[in-house]
Every structure is written in structure tokens, then in C-alpha cells.
Amino acid sequence: MLRPRSAPRAAGFTLIEMLVTMVVMAILMGLAMPIMSTWLRNSRLRAASDSLQDGIRLAQAEALRRSHQVVFSLTDDKPTDTTYTAKTNGKNWAAKTVKRVSTTEVSEFVEAGIVAELESSITITGPKSICFNSIGRLVANDDPGTNAGLCTLPTNTPPLQSYDISYADAVAGVDRPLRVTVALGGQVRLCDPAKSLSSDHPDGCP
């Protein structure tokens, strides 16, 4: 006599297989979370640094294009015209032309942007304002405009104005602060302050 065949096993996962899969996924997610968190924090620092660098370059380019002195400032205001107050650790930036001495002209608003959200823990440390002359070089100015903050020339060696971008709650060995430097001659660059500029570290800071 022929033995009856058993019914074929239904396709799919058993409850135990699903539980094991979920546990493995939970473990992998737990391992990946710190890495993702670090990546996100450093991406925000890089975005803030790029925004700051772009704003400085725009102010310099406008000084060259207009053949007119332009002041770049940090501020916590959201400027839409020339009414804003420069601030050392401001998280927004603004640029405007500088009124010529003994003339009736007024400052002209150029552009503004955001470096970091006001509520974020990213800090920007550097001068309130820097001024570019008509050939794109840094220039001193005791009065670049109402509430714009005075512009000074760097006295360090090499002569650089520097903006450090970091977290107020920085995690040592995890976060990667960045720095934007502006040389006396007008060269603007983004660098890693944890490295010294050399042939081995072209991304380092002077």
C-alpha cells in the first residue's frame, strides 16, 4: 500500500524566526545609532562652516564687483535691510556696502544668510565684522555703518582673521570643529584646527 504524502509546509516565517530577526535588527540599529549621531553632528558643523565661508566670499566678491568697500558681519538678527546689530557669536550673517566718508550716500544692503539655527548648540567664534576694500583685501574701518561693529586688521602671524565653528556641548574625540580663515590679502579657506597645515595635511590650519 502506498503511504499518503504529508501536506507541504506553508511558505513564510515562523514566529521564532521573526523574533530572532527582530532581535538581530535591534542589535544592529543600536550599534549604528552612535555612528549616525556623530555623522549628523559633524554634517551640521560642515554645513554651518560652508554657509559662513560662502557669506564671506560673497561679501568679498561684491566689494570687487562694485569697486566699493563691503562689511561682512555676524548677527543674531534676521536682516532684510541695513538694520541689524553685529554680534561676536551671531548665528546669521549679513553684508552691506560701507558709506564713503563725506558723502551723502547710504549703505546698501547686499545679502544675508543663516550660519546655524538660533536654538542650535553650534557656536561661531570670531570677529563681529570684517571689511573688504575694492580689491578684495581686508581693511580696517572704525565705523563701517550703524551697529555693524568696527573692522580691525589681524595682528597674529600669519595675519589671519579666524572664525571657529564648534559645539557648545562638544564631545571630545567625536565632534570635528572647523575653522574659516581670512588672510590679509583676502584668501578665504576652510580648515581643520586639529591639524597643522603641511604637505601631509593640506586641510590643516596655519
Features:
alpha+beta, minor pseudopilin epsh fold, 5-stranded antiparallel sheet, 25% helix
What does this structure look like?
- This protein is α+β, with helices and mostly antiparallel strands and 206 residues long.
- It has one domain (36-205): minor pseudopilin epsh domain (minor pseudopilin epsh fold), CATH 3.55.40.
- 25% of the residues lie in helices and 26% in strands.
- It contains one helix and ten strands, in the order αββββββββββ.
- The longest helix has 52 residues, at 15-66.
- The chain is elongated and about 85 Å long.
- This is Prepilin-type N-terminal cleavage/methylation domain-containing protein.
- InterPro entries: N_methyl_site, Pilin-like.
- Keywords: Membrane, Transmembrane, Transmembrane helix.
Summarize the structure.
This protein has 206 residues and is of the alpha+beta class. The chain contains 1 helix and 10 strands. The protein has a single domain, classed as minor pseudopilin epsh domain (minor pseudopilin epsh fold, 3-Layer(bab) Sandwich), CATH 3.55.40.
CATH architecture: 3-Layer(bab) Sandwich
Specify the CATH homologous superfamily.
minor pseudopilin epsh domain
Task: Assign an overall shape.
Answer: elongated
Tally the helices: what do you get?
1
Strand pairing plus helix content: what structural class? alpha+beta
How many β strands by DSSP?
Answer: 10
Strand fraction equals 25-35%
Q: Summarize the amount of helix as a percent range.
A: 25-40%
The unreliable regions are none
